[in-house]
Amino acid sequence: MGNDRSGTGAETASGPGYALLLAAGPAGKQRLMDAAAALPQLAAVPPAALLGTPGGASVVQLVDPADPQTVLTHLRTAAAHPGPVLVHLAGQLTLDAKQRLPHLALARTTPRTARYTALPWHWLTAELGRRPPGSTVVVADLVADETAWPPLRAAGPSGLAAGLTLYGTVAPAPPKRGAPPKRGMATPDYSRAFAGLLRGAAERPPLALLHQRAALEAGLGSGPELLLDGAGPDEAYPAPDAAPGPEAAGWAGQTGPAEAAGSAEAAGSAGAAGPVAVTPPRMPLSPPESFLSADPRPAPPSPRPPQPTHAPLPPPPRRAPVADPLAATHAAIFEAANSGRHSEAASMAAAWEQEALRTAGPRSDEAIHWLEVRADLSRIAGDPARACELWLAVADARLGNGEPVGHPEVEGAVDRAHHQWQFVQDRARAGALAPPLMELRSRVPGRKPGALEAVRRRAELLRAPARTR
After folding, report:
1. What percent of the chain has pLDDT over 70?
2. What is the per-residue pLDDT across 125-172, written as a single tens digit (0 to 9) for each?
3. Domain 17-175+184-228, CATH 3.40.50.1460 — does that match?
4. Segment Disordered: which positions (predicted)?
5. Is the pLDDT of residue 331 over 60?
6. DSSP element (H, E) containing 20
7. Residues 186, 171: contact at Cβ < 8 Å?
8. Where are the domains positioned within the chain?
């Protein structure tokens, strides 16, 4: 996404605005912040003041969503809006156990299931990163749990701000013991101060100034929390107190478009002939839906910021190289797919799949991994029927390997197959996919009640004669 260099936020875009106010957190004892308390005061701000748009704005509130796909749908609606957009996030960050990537915890999130029940942070950057420069601002009032805080503390604000104009604060989880009535529960003080300043202002001040005043009123800046001051990916942050360790490597900004293009050329030169040797980028990138180590939408280049009048801050220390040897391959494949070169991306993935089948066998983790990649490529190419077929194959392979029906990898594959099937418009193809999906759903019902019954209802509708007008 282009960054707001003037500090005025979305005022550079014209037309009515759109605000998405999201408050989320796990249920029960896993909840670290009373995120919903941020919304009443924000909702009381006149929409035109919230967005800085005299023409008014639409405001959508989303409280404690349980499904990351639901949040993704709202993000895509915001990303498609032609005018200025503000996304406000209140909640907590966690890491998934497998890839150690940041996620926004949702209502059903637990430490074991974060990869499937929380919103990957890179989904947010991927969806909003396609918008015009200067049109979008993200305001965050977050706490980071014990898994997310150490690498974020080491990486600094750039661990979240890459590709975003991001204001707000991230604090470590509060101590489990404290004064009643909110023992171990953080409060969204930054959001309340932010809203209070907007309500009392005749017109919205520049966001950089608004952020500074909100942080001051909330008593932030002297503690361990990180302040997100809207600096973009090309702007230097102060170096952390200590050089980050290997665990922070995946938090340090995103591979730029030039690097991704170079990887694509390296991989594309091999075509379908087989895998190529490429140098991994400096961090693992991740596509939406399959949670692989490749970002499907590298952030577009941003205009250079104005030259500062004061001495520039030293750049952050270079990050350690990523250990994943396939990171650059994934980046090249998904860069091609998201540039519309779907055949090229499919050929590269097919070549790697054939190599995995030859060297490790059809039921190997490597072969299943490339099935997942091909399923995600089909989704990106707009072929939900093929994506459904491939996710069904993934689930079947995992069950054939003895993975239990309640295993997150199995449930995730069936859930994605079901999700893609709902978008198949061709009645014949959807009808043909219904029986195998129904059979898998009977074995793997998933965590959302009524999933099997939903498949049965749609299958019955598909079998009924089509209505003609």
Report:
1. 74
2. 888 888 887 889 999 999 999 999 999 888 888 788 877 889 999 999
3. yes
4. 226-322
5. yes
6. strand 17-23
7. yes
8. 17-175+184-228, 328-463
Per the CB < 8 A criterion, the answer to whether 257 and 301 are in contact is yes
Q: Token match 């003037």: residue?
A: 6
Q: Which CATH architecture has domain 328-463?
A: Alpha Horseshoe (1.25)
Is 60 exceeded by the pLDDT of residue 218? yes
List the structure tokens of 315.
């750049």
Residue of 382, 402, 379, 403 whose CA lies nearest to 391: 379
Measure the CA–CA gap between 431 and 453, rounded to whole angstroms. 15
Q: How many CB atoms lie within 10 A of CB 351?
A: 19
Residue 354 burial by Cβ neighbours in a 10 Å radius (0-12, 13-18, 19+): middle
Cβ atoms 16, 59 nearer than 8 A: no
Please give the average per-residue pLDDT across 280-305, as a whole number. 34
Intra-chain end-to-end CA distance of the chain, in Å = 44
Per-residue pLDDT of 371-412, as tens digits, reads: 899 999 999 999 999 999 999 989 988 998 999 988 888 998
Asked if residues 413 and 406 have their Cβ atoms less than 8 Å apart, the reply is no
